[in-house]
Each structure stands twice: as C-alpha cells, then as structure tokens.
Specification:
By secondary structure, the protein is an alpha/beta fold. The protein has ten helices and nine strands. The protein has a seven-stranded mixed beta sheet. It has a two-stranded antiparallel ribbon with strand order 1-2. Helix 5 links the parallel strand 3 and strand 4.
Length: 263
C-alpha cells in the first residue's frame, strides 16, 4: 500500500469518535473505503443495468478490511437466526472471508471447513465446489458468498451443494445479479479479462445472473427462503453499517423430503 493510501486508511479507521460501526470488527470508523475508484470504476453496462453487487463507494472497512458484502452477510445471518444455529453444526465455507471465518469458528461449530479452489492462506483446504470430497448429506450449513459467479458450471456446483447438504441443511449463496435481465447471461465467446469486466462486472466473473436467479438455484432441488433487506433488516442504519440494501439474502434450504420437480 502506497504511503498516501495508507494515510487515508489510517485517518478513516483510527481517528476517534467515528460515526460508523463495522460489524465485522466492532470498530468505530469515519468512512468505508471505496473499491478501486468507486462508482467510476464500474463498467458502463453494469451502471446502465443497475447491477446488484458490492457497494463500491462504501466497500472496505479501513480497520479490518471487511467488505460490504461480508458485513451484510453477518447482519443477515444474525437477523435470520442462522448465526445462533451454527453451534454444534458442520459448516463448509467457500472462499472464506477472514473476519467472517473467525466469527463462525467462535460460535462453536462441530466442524468448520474453510475451502477454496485456489487457497490463498493456510488452514484453507483445496476443494472444487463442483466436485466436493464431502460425503452425501454430511453438511449442515454451506456458505458461498460471491462464489458462483466465478464457477464455470454453476449447475454442477448446485447439484453438489444439494448432494452434500443434510435434509433441512442451509445454503447461503450470495452473488451479484441484475433484476433488469430476464435471464442469466453468459456467452462462451467472452473470455478475455477486459471483456468479462465489461460484460459481467469483474474480470474473473463468467456470467451475470438475471431475475431468474432464484428459479435457477431452486431447480437443483433447493427450496428458496430468500428475503429482502427490508424484510430482515428494516431498522438498519445503512450509513452506520455501510451495506447495499438492494442485495437480498439468498438463503436456500434442502427439503427434508426430496422434491419431485428437482432436476
């Protein structure tokens, strides 16, 4: 980090009496730091489509580095009751965010498995979400926060999620999407990083989910229990916590009796 950026982070995160509160580290801060150059860094097509993803203007906590989607997920898990349900359960966490991972482990799960296709830190297992090594019906809670938009075969990943979840198990599948698109969009000809950035919103995304996202995920055999921000967090001060109120809580449950319409 260059000295000027370091100074900006220090002033935003460590001056006392900050008016904002990061729920990931419980620190008072003055502002959340933007992603790259904020809204100016969002491709023109993504702005025109009003894509629902990270809040690029209020992105990162200058104290702990938690991103807005991580802070939002912590709040969602608490509001939904799943936070208290972690104790004694087996939790699988893909692309584990460092702050959320510590919180989850502190809740006393029977087993906590942090995993990624390309781990960047120790303690994270190398596991492909499309070919998981877990036994059938062996996982209580699976979290993939902004993961499926990176996965080439998301239907295979969803099938695997259904396979490893116990009946009644929970899948948290946050991902960027665009309610203005009638259908999820992917073209195999879009492979270059700059083309993916323009078409999908990030260089390593492989699709842009549309308004069919819940139907697409549910087709795997999961029951949707999706809630809006206003339904779960109606009293939340968004300026205080720095989250994107347009992002729903993409919560799905494996039925206790297999659905007849599942693919």
């Amino acid at each position: 980090m260059n000295p000027l950026k370091l100074l900006r982070f220090a002033l935003a995160g460590y001056l006392p009496f900050g008016p904002r509160l990061c729920v990931a580290c419980n620190s008072r801060i003055w502002r959340y730091m933007p992603y790259r150059n904020g809204i100016a860094s969002v491709p023109e097509l993504m702005r025109a489509l009003d894509i629902v993803g990270s809040d690029v203007e209020h992105f990162e906590c200058p104290r702990c580095g938690a991103h807005d989607r991580e802070r939002h997920l912590i709040l969602y898990l608490k509001a939904s009751g799943l936070w208290d349900d972690v104790h004694g359960k087996r939790v699988v966490h893909f692309a584990p965010e460092r702050r959320l991972s510590r919180h989850l482990q502190s809740l006393g799960p029977a087993d906590y498995v942090a995993c990624d296709l390309f781990p960047q830190s120790t303690g994270v297992q190398t596991i492909d979400i499309t070919r998981m090594s877990f036994a059938d019906e062996s996982v209580d809670i699976l979290i993939a926060n902004h993961v499926l938009e990176h996965v080439d075969d998301d239907r295979k990943a969803l099938s695997e999620i259904v396979r490893v979840l116990r009946p009644g198990g929970h899948a948290i599948l946050q991902t960027p999407y665009c309610a203005g698109l009638h259908s999820t969009w992917r073209d195999p000809g879009i492979t270059a990083a700059d083309a993916r950035l323009a078409a999908y919103g990030q260089e390593d995304h492989v699709r842009l989910y549309g308004r069919d996202i819940v139907e697409r995920f549910a087709a795997s055999g999961l029951n949707p229990d999706v809630s809006t921000h206003d339904e779960l967090l109606p009293e939340l001060d968004i300026d205080l916590h720095g989250v994107n109120t347009s992002e729903p809580f993409f919560h799905f449950v494996k039925p206790r009796v297999p659905r007849q319409d599942a693919c």
